Amino acid sequence: IWQGFTGMRVHDNWLENGAKYGLNIGDVGAGTGKVELQAWNNVIMGTKLPPFRMGSSATSMDITFAYNTIHNAMVSNSGSGNGYFRNEGAGSGAIRIYNNVLSQGAATVTGTRWFWDYSGTSSGWTFRNNLYWDAGRGVALPADPAALSGDPKFANAAGGDLSLLAGSPAIDRALQPVPFTITNDMSAKVPRPSGPANDIGAFERPQ
């Protein structure tokens, strides 16, 4: 009997131009086991397919994806629904998507959604306090009761600098608690918080 995967930690990574997915969670489809994962301070850019794919059948999930920055991803049609987050599994439990900068770009396929439930059996997904930027495309927000919408004001996205400029709506707005402590940003040089509250996304602007 498959027991699952626990103790997984994915942090401080830069993934760019992946041929398929960014973070891909999949298992043997046994309909048993536990998946436990914490992912923070990651940047995902330019993935051809969804930057976050869930393909698990685990009956006990404890997953937190928080303080990450996704920009200009989902650059190719997948043929089964385009979304920054795509659920293909029948697993159940807690899947927390908190305090992330989710930004579409010029290469993002038109019509890409924030969340696409391909399986039709999504369970336990919660979106809280994310900053969404659709570059003026009119993409409907997911069910996120604390959603923020607007240009994150990256320092130089074209040049690969996704740190925050002054005036970014992400600054001091990461107010959704997460079940673990994060002491600094992706650069490992700026402590969290560096102001009244943490900044949304992988980068904290020094104050």
Q: Can you characterise this structure?
A:
With 207 residues, the protein is mainly beta. It has strands spanning 4-11, 14-16, 23-26, 34-40, 43-45, 52-55, 60-66, 69-71, 83-87, 93-98, 101-103, 113-117, 125-128, 131-133, 148-149, 154-156, 161-164. Strands 2-5-8-11-14-15 form a six-stranded parallel sheet, with no helix packed on it. The protein starts with a strand and ends in a 43-residue tail after the last strand. The model has no long low-confidence stretch (mean pLDDT 95).
Q: What amount of the residues lies in strands?
A: 35-45%
Q: What is the typical, i.e. mean, pLDDT?
A: 95
**String of helices and strands:** EEEEEEEEEEEEEEEEE
Main β sheet profile: 6 strands, parallel
Distance between the termini: 51 Å
Structural class designation: mainly beta
Comma- or semicolon-separated keywords:
single chain; five-stranded parallel sheet; mainly beta
In short:
This protein is mainly β.
SSE arrangement:
Layout: E1 4-11, E2 14-16, E3 23-26, E4 34-40, E5 43-45, E6 52-55, E7 60-66, E8 69-71, E9 83-87, E10 93-98, E11 101-103, E12 113-117, E13 125-128, E14 131-133, E15 148-149, E16 154-156, E17 161-164
Parallel strand pairs: 1-4, 2-5, 3-6, 4-7, 5-8, 6-9, 7-10, 8-11, 9-12, 10-13, 11-14, 14-15
Antiparallel strand pairs: 16-17
